Amino acid sequence: MRGSLTDWNRLAVIGGIDFEHPEAVRALDAIAEDTARRTGVPLSLATLVLNSAQLVAGASRAVRECVPVDGTPNEWSLCARIVISGEPFVVTDAAADPRTADSPAVTMAGLGSYAGVPVVLHGATVGAHCLVATAPQVFTDGQLAVLHRGAAEIAVVFRRHAAA
Amino acid sequence: MAGVAGLDEPTEASVIAELAGTVGAENAEMLWVIVCRRLKVSRPVTDPQHLIKATETLMELGDVLRVSGRSAKVRLITYRALEAALPG
């Protein structure tokens, strides 16, 4: 489902989630780590796309060890594109792909490839579950299936930590 | 407005503008006044630490404001991290 980054209902759904609760963060980190292990791609994230920035709600160990900040502005966020379109977004060679070549995520942060799928809660696309690599990479159907399964698990964690 | 890595420096005005995108201009202005009173800081808020504190205070005011405040805080922290990491 397509969405606007500033849609009130979408932000209200996110606002109802206790997304910084330590138990939620631990569970989301575990899902991202599991995705990284199953796909063989070390950098995996569970993101919440807020109105102007993406928050890393959960991440694999490799991300936690090497990324010093807990989010990025939405201008840098490929997950934000997923929220807008409501569809998975896959880029095999980010520097060569006209959709991403100019993105600071590519030119500044060195992103080489990306695969992400929507995380949907109460009918709203609240964020994404993604894999990031520093080199160009083709993502297989099997890896995308792991992402979809992880996204469903992330939605369960958000639901568990959401206001009734 | 000074920028780093294509990112404009977050200011009081930009934080209020982002907030206005969620709650409307009038409410955003009113909320910012409340936040500044709580923090006992005078406007315009220019100190980056005060701006971060303001976003944290905003987060305490309600669910959607928690989202807007957290979002603004990510932008402030990212900008400061880039500023510290990049030459010039």
Automatic annotation (TrEMBL), chain A:
Residue ranges annotated for the GAF domain, each copy included: 34-157
Matching Pfam families: GAF_2
Coiled coil, from the record: none
Origin: domain of life: Bacteria
InterPro entries for the chain: GAF, GAF-like_dom_sf
PANTHER family assigned: GAF DOMAIN-CONTAINING PROTEIN, SLR1143 PROTEIN
Protein name: GAF domain-containing protein
Organism annotation: Actinoplanes utahensis
TrEMBL record, chain B:
Protein name, per record: Uncharacterized protein
Species for this entry: Actinoplanes utahensis
